[in-house]
Amino acid sequence: MAPPKKAPAPIKKGMKTDDAFVTILKHNYNYARGWEPTAHQGKNIRGVHQTRVAYRRMRSCIKNFRRAIPRELSSEMQLGMKGFASKLGPARDLDVFQTEVLDVVGNKLTPAAGAKKLKTVVSGKRADAYDQVRSAIDGKEYAAFRKEFAAWLKNKPWRKKMSAAQLKKVNMPIEKYAAQEMDRRFSKMLAMGKNRKSMTDDQLHDLRIKGKEMRYACEFFTPLFGKAAFRDFILRLKAVQGVLGTLHDIHVGPELLEGITSGQSDANVKKTVNNILAMRSSDERKLRKSLDGAWKKLESAKRPWGKVSGKGGKRRGRKNRK
Fold it and tell me: Rounded distance, CA 67 to CA 63, Å?
């Protein structure tokens, strides 16, 4: 069976907020499960990538609905998702290094003997990492999580632990909750990015996470406001994400390479690694310059969810009105 194609969860206006929450989680969970056989086989790198992305979306969904379903009522499920996805992380890191570094600049790397040996080392590490992927998918821990997660979605145990005020929030029409949540997140992201030119690598990573969560929120709630309304906004957001994502890859590159080459005493391999880091450092300077232009375009974007009012969603000041 072919893996599933990406599509938004079938939520619609008028749904209760926690009904939409369950629908989005089920949709992304089924998407992850659909890609697991490909991840398990290990021949197509999209398998691990799509499975991890689906779980990342699920965790982001829980964060996006945290004002309706508090952390203490969902943290156990989120930890289970994070635990499973983390076991797929090494395979994904090596896939990215292979496809975005070695496959792109491999023929330009010097010395040639070091580049050849590095490719052999990466191949062996990837084989080990995919053994871990298969163990995670087949493992008892993941089987137990799937069973618990299915029951959690079906029974909605959070409702039994909520106050009257909290129940009012989960009964809110999803379109109202979604507009408030996206407006709140976007305002916080813009405020964080004001100091982008002087941010450290770790601060830029935090901004990257905010952008990723914002994009997932847009994808979750697009059916409520229409794909056309979000098209330009998401394109601008993707441009910022692309720069921040590459900057993060450059930042974590030395640690990744150190892990890959651990135990290697070959002088040629070390020289090749140093050449890779030098090339990536040059890219970083260019990317930091390009971030400002992409960010300014995002700042001026029209908010596709429209005007927001009400507790938790009211904008302050004229500057943020689009």
Answer: 8
Angle (CA) 298-301-304 rounded to 5° is 125
Residue 102 near residue 117 (C-beta atoms within 8 A): no
Buried/exposed 55-79: b ≥16 CB within 10 Å, e otherwise = bbbbbbbbbbbebbbeeebbeebbe
Q: What's the pLDDT tens digit per position in 124-150?
A: 999 999 999 999 999 999 999 999 999
Span 254-313, pLDDT tens digits: 888 888 888 778 888 888 888 888 877 777 888 888 999 999 999 999 999 987 765 444
Sorted by sequence, the CB contacts under 8 Å of residue 290 that are 6+ apart come out as: 243
Spatial distance between the Cα atoms of 43 and 46, rounded to a whole number of angstroms: 9
Question: For the whole model, what pTM was predicted?
Answer: 0.88
pLDDT confidence band for 322 (50 / 70 / 90): very low
Q: What radius of gyration, in Å, describes the C-alpha atoms of the chain?
A: 22
Residue 322 in contact with residue 263, Cβ under 8 Å? no
Q: For residue 209, what are its two tokens? A: 């996470």
Residue recorded with tokens 């002088």 = 267
Could you tell me the end-to-end alpha-carbon distance of the chain, in angstroms, rounded to an integer? 45
**299/184 Cα distance (integer angstroms):** 14
pLDDT at 310: 56
Domains, in order of start, for the chain = 17-299 (1.40.20.10)
97 in Cβ contact with 255 (< 8 Å): no
CA-to-CA distance for 134 and 242, rounded, in angstroms? 30
Residue that is written with structure tokens 């398990």 in the block: 40
* Contact between 166 and 70 (Cβ < 8 Å): yes
